[in-house]
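Title: [Solved] CBS domain-containing protein 3D structure

Original question kept below for reference.
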Amino acid sequence: MHAIVGDRIIVQAEVTDRPNRLGTVREVLGTKGAEHYRVDWDDGHESLLYPGPDTRVLPRQRAGEEPTARPAEAPARPVRPDDPVERIMGAPVANVDAHDSLRVTAVSLADAAVGALVVMDQGSPLGMISERDVVHALAADADPEEVQAHNLVGATTVWASPADSISRVAALMRDSEVRHIPLRQEETVVGVASIRDVLRVLLDYAGETHRFG
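Solution (posted by the thread starter after getting help):
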């Protein structure tokens, strides 16, 4: 995906009953082929956006004109397991404060319509907390008002880089038995890889290999 300053961007929600997120590109960062953007979102927030498969640019429209289609770009090559995981990562990243209660964490998961949140402590990422972590804690009679998000972050969080291959991230998920892996560039979490998106690539590639092999 390529965008320029002033373009309107839409990030499609993971579930159909949640609204999509709309914003305007204020700055283009990175290099050609690995661009990311500073976006002013319509909800009043600003964040860096590392585009994933759920992100697209809306066609431009001048005042008084009928909507026109944006010039067609060359079809993107299908994503393959050896591609960098940044091609399928979800962004912007939903997070929760380390000292938020279990109840607030559960509400944040529901509001963001995601399966996991990055736990932040004074601007630094501690790890991830998933729906499964919340369910297990409640099943163990954890007090939703007293237990805090940092209490449920594992001692060893599995991290990956946006430049790591999709197949390597899949192996990390398998070996660590996790469904979400935060992608970190230096000290910033730039995206999250989910098992759903990783499996889609692996299955599509296996299907193509079988068809043409």
